[in-house]
Specification:
Alpha-Beta Plaits; 5-stranded mixed beta sheet; Tail terminator
C-alpha cells in the first residue's frame, strides 16, 4: 500500500516532539506523551503534544499547483502550570517545540517539502485551569498521490 504523505509528515513531527524531556535538556516534559489523534484533553492530564492536519489548500508555489497541495499542520501542546507562571511556561513550551522541530530526518518523504513555521497561537485556559496550551502551525507542499 502506498504511504499517505501527510501521515508520514505528522509522524515525523511527532517523533521530533518526543525528544522534549527535561532529561534531554529541554525546559518541559511535553514530549513524554505525544499523540497523532485529536481528542478532548482532561485538565488534569500530564504534559502532552498532539500533531494534527488542520487543512489543505492550493499550492502557493505556481510550479506546484498541479502536483502538490499546501498542507497545514498544527502542533498542539499543553503543559501544567500555576497561573502566576503561565507566561514563563508558555515561553518554555514554545522554545522546546521550536528547538525540537526544525531538523529534517534522512527518511523524510521524497517530493514533500519539510514543514515551514507559520506562527504560534496560545490557547487560553478557562478560569480555574492550571495549564497553558499553544498551537504552532507549520505548512508543507505535499505531493498529490
Amino acid at each position: 500500500m502506498a504511504e499517505i504523505v501527510s501521515e508520514v509528515v505528522r509522524a515525523v513531527l511527532a517523533d521530533q516532539a518526543r525528544k522534549i524531556t527535561k532529561a534531554d535538556g529541554y525546559l518541559t516534559d511535553a514530549g513524554r506523551t505525544v499523540t497523532l489523534e485529536p481528542h478532548y484533553v482532561d485538565p488534569d492530564s500530564p504534559p502532552f503534544v498532539g500533531v494534527i492536519m488542520e487543512r489543505q489548500g492550493k499550492a502557493t508555489d505556481g510550479s506546484l499547483t498541479r502536483t502538490h497541495r499546501l498542507t497545514t499542520y498544527g502542533v498542539i501542546a499543553k503543559v501544567p502550570t500555576s497561573m502566576d507562571a503561565a507566561q514563563a511556561t508558555l515561553a518554555a513550551i514554545v522554545s522546546d517545540l521550536e528547538r525540537a522541530l526544525p531538523g529534517v530526518p534522512s527518511d523524510y518523504p521524497r517530493g514533500a517539502q519539510f514543514p515551514q513555521y507559520e506562527g504560534m497561537e496560545p490557547i487560553p485556559p478557562q478560569p480555574g485551569m492550571d495549564w497553558v496550551g499553544v498551537v504552532l502551525r507549520y505548512s508543507s507542499h505535499t505531493p498529490i498521490r
